[in-house]
Specification:
The protein is α/β, with parallel strands linked by helices. It has 14 helices and 12 strands. It folds into 2 domains: 314 residues, Alkaline Phosphatase, subunit A (3-Layer(aba) Sandwich), CATH 3.40.720.10; 152 residues, no CATH class. Helix 4 runs parallel beside helix 6.
Length: 482
């Protein structure tokens, strides 16, 4: 018999900033309230800093290199026998499951036999008129959540995925300023972007969409409270990867794969605590299974967060390692090859191993650096480089050495690579050995016979026709737009 506990899993699309983390230019009162009365995680990591593989890790409980084709950003999603997902298992155990907004994607999940999006049954019938001067989605997320709740039996527990489309680009230029925001709200521009009015305005446009997302969160929380379901519902709020700006989304630095994460569950834990343990998206599926008394497969790499929820203060910081990787993201490189990377993160240091340092990490220059979303900030950095100011370009787009080592405590923005510093050689060697041992233990194909398997998987045909290297050669190339 499963427990009468509900889960509302809320995931933004490309968000790095919530107000509860001290980001004053983003007003998120509803998420902040959940954090104040719940738990604020300071070190939650995705496994791969791009939408589709990040979401696949959540759904499967596996590291990105364990996902087969789903490790790649554009893919034919594996079938049910290849990849077990928590929405299907929960549904088999009597839980009411569904999603609104964006589930898993982008990619093709039907070719290999799935009928539903990997996130579950879709509830996207209701629409609304977005605010003027905006590009937010016209999906009425709260109304679709109500449809979902009305479709379950009175005593049936539910697990719902609210996948906002916000703050994914594109934005209406100056929508933040047009809706009352001010550049003075921005206390700091990260050092890898120019502190320029173009960047600040772009940041406000991004903030406007996060604030829209926060409003939808508040409406869903209100609905739970009206139904008397708030106390026994675990609410989690996070994002799939970092903000859609140069050097963040799709890249292997702390600001992309260390994500905001709030947990709120009045029946189970008191609020007001911050969690510094290094946690991962591979821990979410084991958490869901433990809640519903479903056996957790022994081969999964993560462990339930319930022990952290209920731990004493001295035990809340026990987890001390996180692991990340990437393979093929957006097209725009010769023969549609990827940019393979693996990382290990400790409380103090981040080590990145770039296996193909001769490739361009954000895509090739001639195709427009396609693994970086088009934006005013991107245009400004590229324009500055043409004028001889290359420092921001070098941070965001230039080729990288095989090893990058960062002191997170002293250098949170990962600006200074210590890999060639003699004082850190022993540390780097130790972390590399630890990383390689973990990758072998978790059966990373890069440490098995067919290390290039991720570049051999077939790509969706519609994408190939428009966005592949072949289309670039033929003169018909179009950068990906989602």
């Amino acid at each position: 018999m499963i427990q009468e506990t509900n889960i509302l899993f809320i995931i933004a699309d490309d968000a790095s900033h919530f107000g509860c983390y001290g980001h004053s230019f983003v007003k998120t009162p509803n998420i902040d309230s959940l954090a104040k009365n719940g738990l604020l995680f300071n070190n939650m990591f995705t496994t791969n800093p791009k939408c589709a593989p990040s979401r696949a890790s959540i759904l499967s409980g596996k590291h990105t290199w364990q996902l087969g084709e789903a490790c790649n950003h554009q893919c034919y999603f594996p079938g049910k026998e290849e990849l077990k997902l928590y929405p299907e298992i929960l549904e088999e155990n009597g839980v009411h499951v569904g999603f609104t907004g964006k589930g898993w994607g982008p990619g093709d999940y039907t070719t290999k036999g799935r009928t539903n999006n990997p996130a579950g049954k879709e509830y996207n019938k209701n629409t609304l008129t977005p605010p003027n001067n905006s590009n937010v989605s016209n999906k009425d997320y709260p109304a679709n959540f109500i449809d979902f709740l009305n479709a379950k039996s009175d005593s049936q527990p539910f697990c719902f995925w609210f996948g906002a489309h916000e703050p994914h680009r594109k934005y209406t230029p100056k929508q933040g300023l047009l809706n009352g925001k001010s550049m003075d709200e921005i206390s700091e521009v990260p050092p890898y972007w120019p502190d320029h009015e173009i960047v600040r305005s772009d940041m406000l446009d991004y903030a406007f969409e996060i604030e829209w997302f926060d409003t939808q969160v508040g409406l869903m929380v209100d609905e739970l409270e009206c139904r008397g379901e708030l106390e026994n519902t675990l609410i989690m709020v996070t994002s799939d990867n970092g903000c859609p700006f140069p050097r963040v989304k799709g890249q292997m630095f702390d600001d992309d794969f260390r994500l905001p994460f709030v947990a709120h569950w009045p029946n189970k834990f008191e609020g007001g605590n911050e969690i510094d343990s290094l946690c991962s998206f591979v821990d979410l599926l084991p958490t869901f299974y433990e809640i519903y008394n479903i056996p957790i497969p022994s081969e999964l790499p993560g462990s339930s967060l319930l022990e952290i929820f209920s731990a004493s203060e001295s035990k809340k910081n026990d987890r001390s390692r996180a692991y990340m990787g990437r393979e093929r993201h957006d097209y725009g490189r010769e023969d549609d090859l990827g940019y393979p990377v693996r990382c290990i993160r400790t409380p103090e240091f981040l080590l990145c191993v770039n296996y193909e340092p001769n490739r361009w990490p954000a895509g090739n220059p001639e195709t427009g650096f396609t693994n970086c979303d088009s934006s005013p900030t991107k245009d400004l950095i590229l324009d500055l480089q043409k004028k001889g100011h290359s420092s921001y370009f070098d941070q965001a787009f230039a080729k990288r050495p095989k090893f990058q080592l960062f002191d997170i405590k002293e250098d949170p923005y990962c600006m200074s690579n210590l890999s060639e510093n003699e004082n850190f050689k022993d540390l780097q060697s130790h972390l590399l050995s630890e990383l390689n041992a973990y990758l072998k233990e978790t059966k990373d194909p890069r440490f098995l016979e067919n290390k290039d398997i991720f570049e051999q998987y077939k790509l969706p045909q519609d994408d190939l026709a428009k966005h592949s290297w072949s289309s670039f050669i033929q003169g018909t190339f179009q950068p990906q737009k989602y």
